[in-house]
User: What shape does this take?
Amino acid sequence: MSEALAQMILPLRFDQSYSFDNFYDEDEFVLHALVSAIQSPAEHFVLISGGIASGKTHLINASAAFCQKNGIAFQYFNAEQLMQYGSDIITACSESSVLLIDDIQLLAGNSEWERKLYDLYNESQRENWIFIAACKKDNLASFELKDLCSRLDSGFQLTLDSRDETTLKKIIEFRTHLLGLSINKDVLNYLFSHYPRDLKQQLNLIKKLSERSLVQKRKLTIPFIKATME
Assistant: This one.
């Protein structure tokens, strides 16, 4: 890989819309655990696992934002982008305090990348830096390198629960309050019965509605939503 190419694609940009402050964590266990892992690590490998839309990507990106805000050297990668390149794209991890890789299950079955993950895990133990990875729940078994499986399974694990409709509504309510607005149960029920229940789409909808609400100085009501979205 040429130096020019490496500089163009490294480091990969994390999504700055995610933070620990806007992650809904009812008892804040996950947030406290991640902050502790980054600031005062007892373990050098942390695995964040969970199902679709459970918050894995949010936490990986929020960890990057936390590192940036607190002056902690880090590298962030998304496995989907990494698959386009050779494993030598990740170098000199010892120069960073934290390495973050999202969706590592996408690298399963790729012998070059499985070996790289294995080496990165071992390097983090030897050289005293933190490796935090996110993986779709129950996908560790899809890795063919068994030594890698055992290592990934041996670190500190944060398993995120699947989000049912009740939890999704709590997240929407929480994020709406962060935008400086209130939302009642009738409005929440309306949103979930008239629009896709996908969390990302719901959050985008709330963002759009909140912007219109602030401009027009109106509360989030069903008539307002109907008028805005029609």
